[in-house]
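Let's study my pick:
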Amino acid sequence: MRRADPGPISRLGRPPATDALRGWLVTIGVTLLAAFLRLWDLGQPTDRGTPVFDEKHYVPQAWQMVRNGGIEDNPAYEKVVHPALSKQLIALGEMAFGYDGVGWRISAALAGVLTVLLVVRAARRLTRSTALGGLAGVLLVCDGLSHVQSRMGMVDVFSALFVVAGFTALLCDRDDVRARMALVISQDRVGDDPYGPRWGVRWWRLAAGVLLGLGCGVKWSGSYYVVAFALLAVLWDVSLRRRAGVARPWAGTAMRDLLPSAWALGLVPFVAYLSTWWAWFASETGVDRHVVGREIGTGGAWSFLPDAIRSLWYYHGQVLAFHEGLTTQTAGQHPWESKPWTWPMGLRPMLYQYADSGVSGCSADKCVQAVMLIGTPALWWPAIPVLVWGLWRAVTRGDWRWVAVLVGYGAGFLPWFLNLDRQMYYFYMMPVAPFLVLATVLVMGQMLGRSGVPERRRRIGLMLVSAWVALIIVNFVWLWPILNGNPITEAHWQAELWLPSWR
């Protein structure tokens, strides 16, 4: 007997969660929690009123932008080694609150809060569960790495924001186009063309292209996500046409989807990235703004391009040369640099600020104040088994959720193995942390099991997940003093340093 068709939506996978009001209430609640914790005493600590650690690079450059219409004025040393967008966002906070800890950190804090919101929505779409979506937000709130970077006037939190926003937009596009395909199936039009239907404008995919391009406008490492997510989107298109019963799914994707994808996830990100240089184009004193006729000639094969474009290309070459020369061999060993094989478990955190003189406010005569960038161990230490489990699910079950999360994780992690001599730092994992959270929530969802599993199995899963989440929260609370620079005793400081590599 032939099995009945379960329906167009079921043939294309589980439908999105339908509890929209509850979903937004959970999202808003978790986001408010993130805002409270990220913004609490945001202006502290400082280095006697000045920025700490790498804030010393970006905060003064942002303050220059406040005075100069969006550009830095440090051409003599060419130490402007990242695009301008993140520093322009920091400058907005400085314009609103002044040149102090709150002013130069408020934009980063808001970016961190928005990232939590987006992770809730992304996890809800991945798992089709509002509860798991809210849980993902709580886990990101309790991640020490994300917490500290959201309270620093540095650039990496903005990379995370735009990467997660682009990823979430792609998830929305996936659900949107599957709903369109469901309509085609219900109208029995799949067989009208061997290549399948055309989709017209896919606004969510265009939005993803813009957001990923802005991510490149924060740091060039955003380009890895553009390539990775573009490939992921094409695979989703093939899978959709195949599952819908299109006669020639691969050819259909090539004929119907490839060119629009190249436009949305190739050209649009490039244009969005170029737009982040608006202030540099409009300036007369931007770094290397007028090098045509000086450092580079007025003739040659590329002379047909506008001088501004050629100057920008030259400037990019100078920045690339700086990054290529930033190696341990040439620049020396930084005391807190690390290599990527230590990052998945956060084995080499970073000390951003430390003071043991003139510090008061603890229960002893001598107090210590420190800010350490460290991922919450209860979340980060299980990363290897979590990722291995996900890889197994992706390979053996073809689980699209794990494919998506692993692509996001790998795009931010694997490229750093290409040049191991380069100076590298744990904060490069900031855009990866949300994908670790999503992977952890997928594992927790499988521990809980789907509705309909035996009650005993459900209770055991709930007990294990509750214990894991409680451990992460307690671990975050324990680390709170060294995530925020609260005065503590010397004995307490030593108790926070669990591993030799943390010292």
Observations:
- The two ends are 68 Å apart (CA to CA).
